[in-house]
Amino acid sequence: MAEANPGITPQPMGLRSHYIGSLPEIPTGESVALCGWIAHVREHGEHLVFVDLRDHTGMVQCVVAHRSQLSVEAAARVTGVVDRRPPGTENPNLPTGSIEIRVSTLEILGPAAPLPLPLEDDRDVDEYTRLRWRYLDLRRPRMQRNLRARAAVNAALRRAMETQGFVEVETPLLWTPTPEGAREFLVPSRTQPGAFYSLPQSPQIAKQLLMIAGVDRYYQIARCLRDEDLRADRQFEFTQLDLEASFVTQHDVRRVVSHAIQAAVRAVRGHEAPPIGEITWREAMARWGSDKPDRRFGMELIDLSETMRDSGVRALSAPYVAALVVNEPLSRSRLDELTKRARSLGVQGLAWFRVDSTDPLAVSSPLLRVVPGELVASLVATCGARAGQTILAVADTFVRATSTLGQLRLELGRHQARPEELDIFWVTDFPLFEGLDEDGNPIPAHHPFTMPHEDDLDLLEHEPLRVRSQSYDLVMNGWELGSGSMRVHRQDLQARIFRILGLTPQIAAERFGFLLDAFRYGAPPHGGFAFGIDRLVAILLGEEAIRETIAFPKTSSGQDPLTGAPKPVDPSVLAPLGVRVAVLRGSTS
Ligand code: ASP
Q1: Which of 430, 534, 441, 522 is nearest to 484 (CA)?
Q2: Average pLDDT in the 331-340 region?
Q3: pLDDT tops 60 at residue 5
Q4: How confident is the model at residue 38 (pLDDT cuts 50, 70, 90)?
């Protein structure tokens, strides 16, 4: 796991003369006053107690020459002198392992009750217990490291944006709906009963208005709130570095973001980020079957469409045929499982060809009955499959064939990715729409303010799914870290896109009239980006879950076990808000 850059040890003040992390640098014999928490107590007979005192910079052994009632995790102040440990008793695993403190006074400033959970970093404690006692959980060195690394990232991002001429502007939390595709949290207005604010899914509309307002280069470390199901590693609230600039191209925006990301990598890892490359959405899908590919391992997909064209083989004739070579002779039962998995991902089936482990010319497959021998040979050759390997193939539309195999690639190969490696790159030229909703209206791949590719404007009404957008994602180790685009800044085009999305002019005016109106007053061309800071910090620290980088996250069922939120509210509190609870707790409808 990456070691966080420890940063600067602060100047001591108040009750302490030193932070523990600075003790190895001071001469023996010097008097010190240390403050922190008692991590361990070891009694050695009547008159000798070893106490490990911990602050966020380290831990040191303190030798107390009398018996005292000490409980772990009590807040304490120790005075004494720094001494060398007797030879043979040093602890090479601790930066302070060659010294100890000969204690003159040990004051308990905050006594501690028996602990409800162990605080050692290597002990497994369930999520609920950790969050119920989060203030104790956060005392653990790993969590202290994470919080401080996050602060270092925020500071580095701010510096990177300021030096690039961006101005921090705070946008409202009490806001109006922003269409980013998620459900919004609502806040009832007491002064206007029956009316609601929305908590922003992102500052998207506000930052576009700031461009019209002449801010030119805006940024914000912005809290975003989305009322989404919390499966996977999501939180209702998350933090983005949000930015927008006027009179720029997408290359300018990407350069600014790349610079900020490199500053964040330096702040946590202490080394330069690898160069940030660029691929198109089509290439990402064709080679890795994903718009956020994890490229830290091979297993690239192969395009078999040409090989299979005109083959007449039903199972392998479709607009696109993608293949994946697995470096082992998969068993029949494993292949059956993978076929089921492929079907659950929305394709008709999975074809497979297993190359014999000793004879590369001997291939087994249920399709041998219908696929002629030369075609099998040319398929194996196109895939470059060797003895003992298995070819998996899916025939379907481009997106379905590649994304199904892309998912199988991840499930079969992800374990090969080296966690400490960083792979950061841009994905460009996304389609404007990702599909059609139940009413046949296109669904924006990003949000409805994204500028279509100029060459595709004529396709908007008749072939919307072929329209490319001027948008770009930033991908890091297989995660979509963030997305952005050049925006529509013309009223007529924005109104046209709302219409294509199925919004009547009346509804568009009701919801976004203020934005369409703003476009009438000299809106500059503009574009921007936002990326998730929680995820960025988690990746840089080698943490699996973003909640390890958030001080007070919710559980995966959206609760805060520490405070009990969300809680029922007394009807007498709701009445002035014009709100009455009609659905009883526990009801699912
Ligand atoms: N508002 C977008 C988001 O939150 C980012 C952007 O387009 O700038 O994903």
Answers
A1: 430
A2: 96
A3: no
A4: very high
Domain residues for the domain of 191 are: 145-270+450-549
Choose the final residue of a domain: 370, 401, 416. 416
Enter the tokens of residue 204.
């998207």
From the CA of 529, give the closest atom in ligand 1.
Answer: 8
pLDDT at residue 589 is higher than 70: no
Amino acid, single-letter form, for residue 222:
A
**What's the CA-to-centroid distance between 581 and ligand 1, angstroms?**
33
Count of beta carbons in the 10 Å neighbourhood of residue 394: 28
Q: Are strands 31-43 and 49-55 parallel, antiparallel or unpaired?
A: antiparallel
The verdict on 406 and 306 lying in the same domain is yes
Per-residue pLDDT averaged across 258-286, rounded?
Answer: 96
Q: Who contacts 75 (Cβ-Cβ below 8 Å, separation ≥6)?
A: 35, 36, 37, 108, 109, 110, 112
- For the stretch 519-576, pLDDT in tens is 999 999 999 999 999 999 999 999 999 999 999 999 988 999 999 999 999 999 999 9
Task: Find the 420 Cα to ligand 1 centroid distance in Å.
Answer: 28
Task: For residue 119, tell me if it sits in a domain.
Answer: no
Tell me which residue has its CA closest to atom 7 in ligand 1. Answer: 484
Same domain, 336 and 388: yes
Identify the residue whose C-alpha is closest to ligand 1 atom 1: 204
Query: Which residue from 171, 483, 487 has its CB within 8 A of the most atoms of ligand 1, so it is best to mutate?
Result: 483
Ligand 1 touching residue 473 (CB < 6 A): no
How long is the chain? 589
- Establish if 326 belongs to a structural domain: yes
- Ligand 1 centre to CA of 354 (Å) is 44
Q: How many domains are there within the chain?
A: 3
Kindly report the CATH number assigned to the domain that includes residue 25. Answer: 2.40.50.140
| Ligand 1 touching residue 498 (CB < 6 A) | no
305 lies in the same domain as 342: yes
pLDDT tens digit string along 177-219? 877 778 999 999 999 988 999 999 999 999 999 999 999 999 9
> What pTM, to 2 d.p., does this model score?
0.92
Ligand 1 centre distance from Cα of residue 422 (Å): 23
430 lies in some domain: no
443 in a structural domain: no
**Choice from 171, 175, 184, 204 to test ligand 1 binding pocket (greatest atom count within 8 A of CB):** 204
Which residue lies with its CA nearest to atom 9 of ligand 1?
Answer: 483
Return the biggest CA–CA distance within the chain. Answer: 90
Looking at the structure, tell me whether residues 258 and 152 fall in a common domain: yes
CATH number of the domain bearing residue 470: 3.30.930.10
Is 202 a pocket residue for ligand 1 (Cβ < 6 Å)? yes
Long-range contacts formed by 273-276: CB under 8 A, 24+ apart = 273/422, 273/424, 274/422, 274/423, 274/424, 276/424, 276/425, 276/426, 276/474
Q: Virtual CA dihedral for 82, 87, 89, 94, nearest 10 degrees?
A: 60
Distance from residue 240's CA to the centre of ligand 1 (Å): 9
